[in-house]
Amino acid sequence: ASSAFFAVTAALQGKGLFARKGIRKGETIFVERPVVCAQFLWNSLYKYRACDHCMRSLETAEENARRLSGLSGLSLPYPDQCQVRPELHQCCPQCQVMYCSAECRQAALDQYHRVLCLGPSRDDLEHPINKLQEAWRNMHYPPETSSIMLMARMVASVKQARDRSHWLNLFSHFCSRTANEQEEMAHKLLGEKFQGQLALLRSLFSSALYDDHLSQWFSPDGFRSLFALVGTNGQGIGTSSLSQWVHACDALELPGQQREQLDAFIDQLYKDIEKETGDFLNCEGSGLFLLQSSCNHSCVPNAEASFPENNFLLHLTALSDISPGEEICISYLDCCQRDRSRHSRLKILRENYLFVCSCPKCISQADELDVTSEEEDDEGEGEAEGDELEDEMTDV
């Protein structure tokens, strides 16, 4: 699919992704693996078991359904449609973190895990990395939108590398922010007390990972810049063995009555899960994707990202036909947010992504009243929606 697109840079707009040839609705534009990714810390603490490298859900679909629904005796039909293979799972022999395969364990070891492995100190609350993670959890509560461990893996990847310039060059491709915008991003992720919290995080981060060759990342300005880079470019990742099982079941060719029974079973299962667990269904984290981070926002997107393989592989799919030369745009807003007034959309984007949208929809609605009285009443609820940013196109 790589021949279907190319990235360009414009002086005024920054990066953009444009179609090199015609792309049909439903076509996969590209599949991309992240430069680095990490599961959210509260998500992991709440027993959403994921591969520590690729974030593949480690629970079978049935285990996943039982935990989320609270129904311990639940049995899923068509168990052969579950693609999780527990017999392939491996743990780090030193610190016991789990991987979905020997390949992921080796890939993590080769890229960053030699630096970050806690060994026998995994449960030692005084270990510098554990202190860093605990501090982050106490500052950044669910719904989570980022992780300090994404930054830790960036540093560890450089520290482990034989060719450090290669990794520094990779990270330099991601969008950077002005000093004022960096402060706004820190405020968004950490809240009102972000100045003191940022200083504490930098101190703990330095204690855990300081390296003379990366001293620029540990200075106050450098750490704030690194923090803003992750906040600006981090793409939300969601994986689910249950969701993968449901999609596999949807593709089964079944007689009419069996199809009706299966659909009714799945509908009831999701009702039970909603009652027991609410909206938190997936293993969740974030990653840095070079191509995806080049996609600009539109309130009428022609592409969307998803994670159908139950791991960190991002699939960018066309939502409509895209003509040669047309910009490929995603949306940083969920479906409900995109249906709101221009005023509300601009407010969410300005507060969470620090830009003013000038997509065709926003331009065409420029003469509309700023906000209706009915929408003004719901504004507080809308801000909460903006903060959650939990749809599959979450950009932080």
Detailed description of the structure:
A hairpin with a 7-residue loop joins strand 10 and strand 11. This protein is 44% helix and 12% strand. Helix 14 (342-353) packs across helix 17 (379-388). Strands 3-11-10 form a 3-stranded antiparallel sheet, with no helix packed on it. A 3-stranded antiparallel sheet has the order 4-8-7. The protein contains 17 helices and 12 strands. The protein is of the alpha+beta class. InterPro entries: SET_dom, SET_dom_sf, SMYD5_SET. Its EC number is 2.1.1.359, 2.1.1.372. Residues 368-396 are annotated as: Disordered. This is Protein-lysine N-trimethyltransferase SMYD5.
Percent strand equals 5-15%
Number of strands: 12
Number of helices: 17
Overall outline: globular
Write out the strand line-up for the largest beta sheet, numbering strands in chain order: 3-11-10
Mean of residue pLDDT values? 87
**Low-confidence regions:** 7-12, 372-396
Radius of gyration: 22 Å
Q: Mind summarizing the main beta sheet?
A: 3 strands, antiparallel
User: What structural class is derived from the secondary structure elements?
Assistant: alpha+beta
Distance between the termini: 26 Å
**Helical percentage:** 40-55%
H and E order:
EEEEHHEEHHHHHHHHEHHEEEEEHHHHH
Primary descriptors:
three-stranded antiparallel beta sheet; alpha+beta; disordered C terminus; 12% strand; 396 residues; 17 helices
Layout of helices and strands, plus pairs?
Layout lengths: L4 E6 L3 E6 L8 E5 L3 E4 L1 H5 L15 H9 L20 E2 L6 E2 L2 H15 L11 H12 L8 H13 L3 H9 L6 H12 L3 H16 L5 H4 L1 H14 L1 E5 L1 H10 L5 H21 L6 E6 L7 E2 L5 E4 L7 E5 L10 E2 L4 H4 L3 H12 L6 H5 L8 H5 L1 H10 L8
Helix pairs in contact: 2-11, 3-5, 4-8, 5-6, 7-8, 7-10, 14-17
